């Protein structure tokens, strides 16, 4: 049942049309799909920029017909604008001289020439000026008097197009300004800006009610771009067509066929998408939609050479660049989503034939492609541009991959059902044998049927599989680029508010603390620290100011006074306002805590005035004291070496203790780092990394939750939390963490690749493809220079890892001890740097304590990558774990002799000293430990050097080393114990007693050292008493 709606197009006027004739009229012809909708009435052009008119064109549309809707949304309304020579009022024209128009033209021309000669100061060549023929008399007589001459016919000014897309986007009435394009392309001298181009003003509305529904509808746009790497069988004299099977408005699968692929060579590419080929070949087919000018958005699963898309060069290609739309109602949209869920691919057919020849196998080529659209199933994605490899058509393969039931170019092939044809041997009509057969005939026929059942079934000949199509001389795969775009995504994306709420629900509640946590003493200390930081920052800004002034000796800020110029420099950069707000904040806290005032705040009150003076004096005194202190310390020379922060030292101590097996000591170092660090999020995250290394995932889970409580945007904690949730099979919660991390850090390459691995792990291929596309998009983004990325592990290094997606991600995941995902990342790098691939696998096996397997990978890495300090160090660690000290020492010595090694190879120094001490070479062990102390001193290294000196009876040197160890960590009972022994041997009994008390206080567990101390005390007591 049809439901006809009328689309009324009202021509409201013309704008910016410059008439060719002195008196001119203009009108419009409208065509839609080859149907002439009529011609508007003529409107006289005047000197005004806008010429008003009113004329209606009507297009009927059956909303219950899918074809009618698709025609309206996929084809424009074509306008042809004509200018007609107008005739003035005959009574007025008869009163004018016959040659007035020509004289006026000549006078106007002479005036123009004279103006050019005056302003250009040169003589104008009058022979170059030609009077237009339209103003000359058709008879060529100068003396003959007649009517004012006019040209014979109308002039085509150009064409315009009206797109009905807004009607399908929920707008039942809209107004548009349509540019009038000339039929021929203008030269550069004739081109004008868009705002000066002539245009038509039209209004479109739907007559009556009951237009299309607005909810749960969608618009599917298919753009066929070009075919690249053409084989030799294709040529320029062939016809090229493409068919795509998609649902129409009423949930019926239909073939969208695009004809007219053109053979092109060179870089002359069409930049605009084209409308489907219409009935009028002279009409401009260019739309207002531009073709994508980059290849970054193409899903290239077939690894095609996309340089051919960006720079075609001289290679031929078949270019379509045609856009076709389908309007999808609710059921059709659900059907399209269901088909994508089931098959993840869209069927595409390519048919190539010779014009004028039968379209059989000898004169045509039938190809197919499976367009992977799984990305459209990811929430928020509405556009997919993919490269699809072409192969020969195979009915069963395309049915299995895409669900295509019938082929457009081979309609006799029903790939869904293979019915057996019925053949009438007599050539006549089929008759009902049962109605005319006798009983004997029935018996005979039953016997025949029984005999037929005994015969063997016919042999089914399998159709050979499809064959990939290759082209050009390099043998590259032939492919086609297709773009699919939806008005609305099939899966709506989650807003950031929902992600934030879900993330907060995953975290523990924040502890309720008292709001008043500062005292008067702490407030004054905070005030002094703030003054110190402000002063130091002012000095650094002044250095920058002087550099700028030296680079530009001119008066940069308009002020010659340096003091005022520096003030202007601070104000223009927004630093002065920051200083004011910071000083106000710290001053208010200090006043509130140290000088509380509860009396009346009346400006005329004497007590209040005295209070203000007291506060001002006190704050000024504190400021002057801090500035004087800074000025006194400023005369001292600056240190040439930058001392690391205490929290960074605790991180080094903890990692070293973990490597040498002192897990409890490492736990204490990481906990102290959490207590002292200013950035709690990073310290809690490092604590979680430590627990993952020791295999305690429960504690790591709690630590990373605490990290997110401190900073819910910290990307490393979000990544770790997501992977831990994935290990607990909480996929939705893990996805929430991933999405939150990528929302706050959209250019984080490792985050996108890890999210790709996560989606691949849970079977979400559309999400995996999208994340991989985003990772390639941000491949050239500079690496983040944060503490976790730049810091190398003590066991291995990332310096030899190439700047590649999956290598960088694998290195990050190994640092976080997620070895399963790291191995998945490394599987994508097998064809890359094989040496680094084996090196990272060796690191994973070493952490898993599979030392023999790790050693095999290390040797393979050395063979493929070549000699390298990192590979030799890993092999040495494996030999040491296997208790092969000689082999380990050889590998470590190779590291020392490497020319490209860094200065600080802390763990190699420590392990080499350990091996040398076990083999009796204490002198070399001491040298290695001192080398470690030179670059990265730790309590363990100073203790080791002190013990070697103590064994050599060099008590003074041993005491100095132990004191350095005590400076690093004053809670090591072994250090206090050996200091007690040294003081006893040096007869410093009071110091020895204090050191022994500290030994007991820190709970020493070394019973052998305790016995030595007690034995020494016994001997001292016997000697003294």
From TrEMBL:
<dbReference type="GO" id="GO:0070062">
    <property type="term" value="C:extracellular exosome"/>
</dbReference>
<dbReference type="InterPro" id="IPR011990">
    <property type="entry name" value="TPR-like_helical_dom_sf"/>
</dbReference>
<feature type="region of interest" description="Disordered">
    <location>
        <begin position="421"/>
        <end position="449"/>
    </location>
</feature>
<dbReference type="InterPro" id="IPR052628">
    <property type="entry name" value="CFAP70"/>
</dbReference>
<dbReference type="GO" id="GO:0060271">
    <property type="term" value="P:cilium assembly"/>
</dbReference>
<keyword id="KW-0802">TPR repeat</keyword>
<dbReference type="InterPro" id="IPR019734">
    <property type="entry name" value="TPR_rpt"/>
</dbReference>
<keyword id="KW-0677">Repeat</keyword>
<dbReference type="GO" id="GO:0031514">
    <property type="term" value="C:motile cilium"/>
</dbReference>
<feature type="compositionally biased region" description="Basic and acidic residues">
    <location>
        <begin position="423"/>
        <end position="444"/>
    </location>
</feature>
<protein>
    <submittedName>
        <fullName>Uncharacterized protein</fullName>
    </submittedName>
</protein>
<dbReference type="GO" id="GO:0003341">
    <property type="term" value="P:cilium movement"/>
</dbReference>
